[in-house]
Specification:
The chain is mostly helical and 144 residues long. It is built from one helix and two strands. The protein has one domain (6-143). The chain has one helix spanning 13-143, and strands spanning 6-7, 10-11.
Length: 144
Amino acid sequence: MEKFNYETNGYNREEVNNFVQEVIKETEGIVSKCASQKEEIKKLKEQLSHYANLEDTMKKALLNAEKAGDNVKRLAREEADLIISDAKNNASRIVNEALLKAEKTEQEADLLNKNIKIFKRKLKIIVEQQEAIVDEIETLELVE
């Protein structure tokens, strides 16, 4: 605190006026600084609001991306299950067709074996008949 000199009519007027001028300057400086700080606070609040909005937007985008990712995973699993199911059905069909074809081939082989046996018996009979004819020809030649 400043001390003023006394004069006849009170304090030294010049000292008081100088002091008041300094107080006014300091007060104006404080008021100016306060106004600039208020302006800076206002700008910072606007930036904070902007960043808060960006954060909300990013959160929403992240949630949407997670939902989309989950959806893609779910669809991929469903498609994989469908492919596996189709593959199993196709495999079963192929195996069944192969079994039927094998059974048919086996039946054809059995039929061929039976035909071969029949052919052998008939050929044997024919050979025996031809042998009998050859024997008969030999005996016929002797008789003349």
